[in-house]
Amino acid sequence: MEKIKVQNSVGAVLIHDMTQIIPGVIKGPRFRKGHVVREEDIPILLSMGKEHIYAWDSTPGLIHENEAAERLASAVSGLGVISDEPKEGKITLTAAHDGLLYLSEDGIWALNSLENIILATLHNYYPVKMGDKLAGTRVVPLMINEKVILEAEQIASTFLNPIIDVRPLKQLKVGIVTTGSEVYSGRIQDKFGPVLRAKIEGWGSVVIGQTFANDDIHLIQSCIRDHLTQGAEMILVSGGMSVDPDDVTPTAIKEMGAELITYGAPVLPGAMFLLAYLGDVPIMGLPGCVMYSKTTVFDLVAPRLLTGERLMRQALTKLGHGGLCLDCPICTYPRCSFGK
């Protein structure tokens, strides 16, 4: 990199984008990296407050910030991630399709621990739409020793999964079992079904049926088996999730021989949540809050299951950090702290 007085810079090749700011009019690159300075550019550069420019030199072992950013973006990107062109040394990564953002938190930390490397991302498990921003990456100096980028690439390659990945949600067949003698007998109207159906269909899956059961273990089990026979790939059992003696949903699920992952989750609302598996079919026991709260544990767990991820207990216990919903008058999830 060579520092040259602007008045003597005609013919020099710019090493970086140069931003022009005119309040209320423009803020953006006036001259791009690689631009060859012309005589008529001199007054413009001076008006931008530039007394000197930085031009290419050929110091061995150094690479430009744009190349460094491109290589970092390539190293961290998995399926469903698109990189734009470098702008002023920074590359933005966006979602190629709708889905759930998966990040390697250890990978992000390891890369940012390298001097002069920057990788900033959204939170893990953030639901995204095609075109949404996921991350930005760059290096701090205009020129950086290539050894640093080689080390970053080597670090990224050591992780089993890409550091940044967008996993699409699978289209599953979902069966709903609504429990409770008050609904089963018709004394009150079912409120669970419409809420669950709207969320499942909003995630791209289909509800193949909803059945009703009173507080009878064998009837609940029979309803679950009927949905499985009809090809259900996910079962939602709503109601009967408290510790009251009459609430037998957890017992019904456990006594079917299901693998119980958790009964209880460190999330509010949603503490009495249950997750189990019958073979490869996830069964969720949903507490009453799912019926009346805008966002609950169901919104944090179900999309991950819909990507095909098989959740273990540790994944659920980690939800405690960020697991408190503030119950805002106007819900802005996922643009809030819940689930983060």
From TrEMBL:
Pathway: Cofactor biosynthesis; molybdopterin biosynthesis. InterPro entries: MoaB/Mog-like_dom_sf, MoaB/Mog_dom, MoeA-like. GO terms for molecular function: metal ion binding; molybdopterin molybdotransferase activity. This is Molybdopterin molybdenumtransferase. It comes from Candidatus Desulfosporosinus infrequens. It catalyses: adenylyl-molybdopterin + molybdate = Mo-molybdopterin + AMP + H(+). It comes from the Bacteria. The keyword Acyltransferase does not apply. Signal peptide: none annotated. The lineage of its organism: Bacteria, Bacillati, Bacillota, Clostridia, Eubacteriales. GO terms for cellular component: cytosol. Its EC number is 2.10.1.1. Residues 175-307 form the MoaB/Mog domain. Belongs to the MoeA family. The keyword Cytoplasm does not apply. Transmembrane segments: none annotated. One of its GO terms (biological process) is Mo-molybdopterin cofactor biosynthetic process. It is an enzyme of class 2 (transferase).
